[in-house]
């Protein structure tokens, strides 16, 4: 399936109005593990140390008393980059003087780590072995420090592979730049770049660019913003957006923005009313809502809240390792109709793979097509329910009448292609009803069909998707009346329709569809007393589906 991803990415970017980089894809290669609570709660940032080892920082939440800490995380991956065993975590080293450590990036020149602190809007260098600050800082502009919202400050941090560029961003909009995220409109953040001439050199501001985050879910909206940044070998940027709401708590998307036509807003102290061009986001390279919706029981769910993203070593198959870590230990509850549902964040570690870029930062389309990662199990679904066959029109000696048939329906839909909010599915299904009175001149009918469909689909929200149904149905209609015992017609019909699917949980959802059948008429009875049934008309179906 991976060989079709570049084509689908082009289509998705054209429909969404985004620009297209060379063909890259991010794949979920498997191997998610849950670390212990509260021992590894509040993981908020990750950076590659070398070989198969990473540094992970914790943000100093209320779940432990020693403030912000940094751990070494040892991993073991297979040839495709999937984690094969639970990462091993070293004892934490307290970052002295840190208040709310959110982002971390290793300095390739000296092995020290830079840590962004959300509480005082600072970025400091630390010795990861001792936790002592070295005294070096990044000069965050004064207006940024003065205009950040509480707990929505510098959540992210990344350093380029050559060590000469540093990136950070505020999680949601500065007060002077606009509102926080709503269900109708995303928030605008500043992607801030700093550069230096060499390792010992001091960081200096080198531009800011506006980035529009996605809107937040509509149910009990909390926030939707930038939770981390990551620099690829070609110096392009990955942006990790993490949404938290009761509807989609833990929804994660990864974008690769295009700065070509964007305005450098470093000299614009307030974006409200200002004229500028934000970076182009295009379609996300990756989207995931992760967790166990019934992890703690029917009314308690365990969900991921990914806050850390970094590149890692090159996998044996040529892809680039991407590592995600999730904050854990927080909980949110909502009561409706007297029932309280609770979502708990868990400290997950998950590996992804970036396909399409070699170790020198060159984009290689052949590498993007090479291999074929398995489609995520949740992408395919089996639906079972009922159908109604309306619009049957019979013409005979009795005149004209209309009738309907009802029965059982089933559909299997396989995801052929997927990119961001767009997908293409292959549907195989069938319908059957036992013999019944269709209110057509006293004739009783039995009906059955096999159908094949292509379903282009657009995901409107994380739960709701709409699709077109285009295909062909092979059906039979058996008639029995007082005048004749049995008469069966076999027909092929074209299908044009729409369907809607809504995910109730990760594994369960509901669907509904309506098709217009383009078909011929079936003739029954003797030539002297012939009945003609026009089979073109509407067929609707509805039911539940299971994903796997």
Q: Regions with pLDDT < 50 over 5+ consecutive residues? A: 1-20, 366-378
Strand order of the largest sheet: 27-28-29-30-31-32-33-36
Distance between the termini: 17 Å
Number of strands: 36
Given the helix and strand composition, which structural class is it? mainly beta
Strand content: over 45%
Integer-rounded radius of gyration: 28 Å
Shape: elongated
Note the main sheet. Answer: 8 strands, antiparallel, barrel
The number of distinct helices, counting runs of at least 4 residues, comes to 3
Average predicted confidence as pLDDT? 83
Portion of residues within helices: under 10%
Task: List the SSEs and their pairings.
Layout: H1 5-16, E1 25-28, E2 33-34, E3 43-50, E4 53-58, E5 69-74, E6 88-89, E7 93-94, E8 101-106, E9 113-117, E10 122-126, E11 133-137, H2 142-147, E12 154-159, E13 165-170, E14 188-195, E15 204-212, E16 221-231, E17 237-245, E18 251-255, E19 286-289, E20 291-292, E21 300-303, E22 306-314, E23 320-326, E24 331-336, E25 339-345, E26 348-355, H3 365-369, E27 381-396, E28 399-419, E29 422-440, E30 443-459, E31 464-480, E32 487-503, E33 508-518, E34 521-524, E35 531-534, E36 537-547
Parallel strand pairs: 21-25
Antiparallel strand pairs: 1-26, 2-26, 3-4, 4-5, 5-6, 5-7, 8-9, 9-10, 10-11, 12-13, 13-14, 14-15, 16-17, 17-18, 18-19, 20-21, 22-23, 23-26, 24-25, 27-28, 27-35, 27-36, 28-29, 29-30, 30-31, 31-32, 32-33, 33-36, 34-35
